[in-house]
Write a structure and sequence with these properties.
heterodimer; A: 111 residues; mainly beta; six-stranded mixed β-sheet; 11 strands; 59% strand; B: 116 residues; seven-stranded mixed β-sheet; four-stranded antiparallel β-sheet
């Protein structure tokens, strides 16, 4: 079964707006990661947040983690048409070696 | 560095045929894995390996075999293809070890398989 579930499944916004995607998971984690996938391509790592961290920034990306609610959010600020892609959260559960991925959020940024 | 290289990019099989999806990485990563991606289901782990000679099952291992004879290569074998194995397959790797086990995966570009 899926460990991470993203919400919403699809999101359409205008260029310049912020995009927020949420991820919920079920078990204790070592870290949580966000990946991006352009259509027809492989996944690319965006950002990793460890279980003892609450917030992390990377450029226009901001990730938060609430381990008490078993949830994370990815905020993309000032979105661009080039941000159009699918975004996946992935969790590394405590004691496990393999990442478990959610079903993803499809983001469409209209120019 | 080429990163993670998958071949073939596209393949069409008939039910019952066998084939091998190739994956090679040139980053000296100990950990390698195979995922399949189906619409609306995200990525599901098939098999993974933490080093040469060591493999383990993931979430959906049935119908697939793997072996790891070298650090660089991690082929995925379909023994008798079924339509349910129509999917996009991704190989991914990362370094392991106590100090560098960040968990960040490096992905190949995928192999799109259709089983008729």
């Amino acid at each position: 079964s899926q460990q991470g579930e993203e919400d919403p499944q699809a999101l359409s916004i205008q260029e310049g707006e912020n995009a927020t995607m949420n991820c919920s998971y079920k078990t204790s984690i070592n870290n949580l990661q966000w990946y991006r996938q352009n259509s027809g391509r492989g996944l690319v790592h965006l950002i990793l947040i460890r279980s003892n961290e609450r917030e992390k920034h990377s450029g226009r990306l901001r990730v938060t983690l609430d381990t008490s609610k078993k949830s994370s959010s990815l905020l993309i600020t000032a979105s661009r048409a080039a941000d159009t892609a699918s975004y996946f959260c992935a969790t590394l559960s405590t004691g496990r070696r393999a990442l478990t991925f959610g079903s993803g959020t499809r983001l469409q940024v209209q120019p | 560095n080429a990163g993670v290289t998958q071949t073939p990019k596209f393949q069409v099989l008939k039910t019952g045929q066998s084939m091998t999806l190739q994956c090679a990485q040139d980053m000296n990563h100990e950990y390698m894995s195979w995922y399949r991606q189906d619409p609306g289901m995200g990525l599901r782990l098939i098999h993974y390996s933490v080093g040469a000679g060591i493999t383990d099952q993931g979430e959906v291992p049935n119908g697939y075999n793997v072996s790891r004879s070298t650090t660089e290569d991690f082929p995925l074998r379909l023994l008798s293809a079924a339509p349910s194995q129509t999917s996009v397959y991704f190989c991914a790797s990362r370094p392991t070890g106590e100090k560098i086990n960040t968990g960040e995966l490096f992905f190949g570009e995928g192999s799109r398989l259709t089983v008729l």
